[in-house]
Amino acid sequence: MNTKILSVGNLSTEEISYTEAVQLLHSGEVVAFPTETVYGLGAIATNEKAVAKIFEAKGRPQDNPLIVHIGSKDEISDFISHIPEKAQLCMDAFWPGPLTLILPLKETVLASNVSAGLDTVGVRMPNHPVALKLLRELKLPVAAPSANRSGKPSPTKARHVHKDLNGRIPAIIDGGATGMGLESTVLDCTSEIPTILRPGGVTKEMLEQVIGKVNETKLVDKSEAPRAPGMKYAHYAPNAPVYLIEASVQSIQEAIASIHKEDKKVALIATDQLKVVDANYYFSLGNNEQVKEAAHLLYEALRSCDDTDADIVLAPVFEKDGVGAAIMNRLEKAADGKWFFEK
Ligand code: TXA
Ligand code: MG
Question: 126: which of 50, 131, 171, 190 fits an S-S bond (Cβ 3.0–4.6 Å)?
Fold first, then answer.
C-alpha cells in the first residue's frame, strides 16, 4: 500500500484533501489526522472492519480500547447512555480540548472492538481546525488512538506518522506540528468522584476548579489490572533504554562520566539549563520555565534518540504539578520506572 500525504496547508489542494480523507473513511479505511494533542489514526467508530484496521496498522493489543472523537457535543447522546452531571460540567468547560471522558456506553451502536468489550467508552471533542473540519464533514464518530506503532512515542508531526506507518495506512493528513504534544487527559466519570487515568493538558488543578475533588491513579503495577488498559503496556520508549535522573547538572555530569567509562554513548533529553556538553547527543526540551514547551518537544526528542547510536538515554525529571504531571507520567513509562542512580 502506498501511503499518501494529504496537504491542508495549501488553499488550492485543501478541499481535495478533505474530500479524499472523507471518502477513504466512508469506504472503511483508516486515515491519520492531526489533533491539538498528537496525531490520531482514525476509522469510523461504527464500522467494525475499519476499526480492526487501526489495531492491525498499529500492532495494538486487542484489549486496549480506543477514544472516540466527535465534531459537535450533541453527537454524544447517540452512543452514550447517561451523562453524569460532572461530565457535563467538564464538557462545558473544556471541550473542544484535550480532555477524554470515560462514560457509560449505549449497547450496539459502536463497533464492539472500539471499547474492547468494556461497557464504557472514552470520548473527546478535539480542538484542532483540521480534526474538527474532518469530523464535521463526516458527521460520524471517529475512533482514533495515537497514530504511532504500539509502544513508540505518539506522533507530533506527519513525518513521525509516516516513519511508523508508511505502507500500512492509505493516507495521512498533514496539518503541521500538533500543539500540546502529549495525549489528552483521560478522566473516568463513571464514579461519584471522577478519577484521572492519564494526566494531560487539562490538569488536576483545572478539573478541580470545575468539579471539585478528583482522584488520580498511580502508575500501575504490571501485576494489577489497570483501569485504563493502555497503562499496562510499555510506552513512549526509544530503542535505547531510558533512565530518569535528578534534575541537577552535577548528577548528569557524574552519570555521563560513568557511562563514558564503559565506552558507551549517551543522549540527554533536558531543558537548556541542564544541557551538559559532555553528552554525545542533546535534545532540547526548551526553557526550564516553560513546561508547556517541554511537553510540546518531548516526543520528538524521544524519537530523535532512535536516529543516533546512543546506548543510553538520560532524562532529568520534572516537578509533578500542572503539565509536569503529564510529562513525568510519560517519562516514567518511557524509562519503565528506572533511575540511573538507585533511588
Ligand atoms: O490525545 C489523545 O487522547 C490522542 C488523540 C489522537 O486524540 N489519542 C490517544 O489515544 O492518545 P490512545 O488510544 O493512544 O490512548 C487512549 C487511552 C489508553 O490508555 C486507553 O487504555 C484508555 O485511553 N482508554 C480508552 N478507553 C477507555 C475506557 N473505556 N476505560 C478506560 N480507559 C480507556
Ligand atoms: Mg497511544
Answer: 131
